[in-house]
Design brief:
- The chain has 100 residues and is of the alpha+beta class.
- The protein has three helices and six strands; from the N terminus they run βαβαββββα.
- The protein has one domain: RRM (RNA recognition motif) domain (Alpha-Beta Plaits, 2-Layer Sandwich), CATH 3.30.70.330.
- It has a four-stranded antiparallel beta sheet. It has a two-stranded antiparallel sheet with strand order 4-5.
């Protein structure tokens, strides 16, 4: 992974991620499935000019979905995703989350 803009796909804004942000200065991002913790840390530090203390990752496996229509039954699968929970140093924040 060379391009840091392709590592961070988008921020995840849910009730849980907002709660993490308010209580413990943690921010949640959807990241490239092939990115490791070191690359995620460097990408967040360069893109947002903050100091990253810790990175935790988890892989979410896509669900299988079946649709029944008049023509028959179709089965598909949602894509797998990878999520990173980034802990920032005390006193630092990312402005993109404050605007939402």
């Amino acid at each position: 992974m060379k391009d840091i803009r392709r590592i961070i796909i988008k921020p995840v804004i849910t009730e849980r991620s907002t709660h993490l942000k308010e209580l413990s200065n943690k921010f949640v991002f959807e990241v490239d499935k092939r990115a490791n913790k070191r690359e995620i840390k460097q990408a967040v530090e360069k893109l947002f000019n903050v100091t990253v203390k810790e990175v935790r990752t988890s892989t979410i496996h896509g669900k299988s979905k079946t649709t029944f229509i008049r023509a028959g039954r179709f089965t598909g699968k949602r894509p797998d995703r990878k999520k990173a929970i980034v802990t920032l140093a005390t006193g630092e924040t990312i402005d993109i989350f404050d605007q939402v």
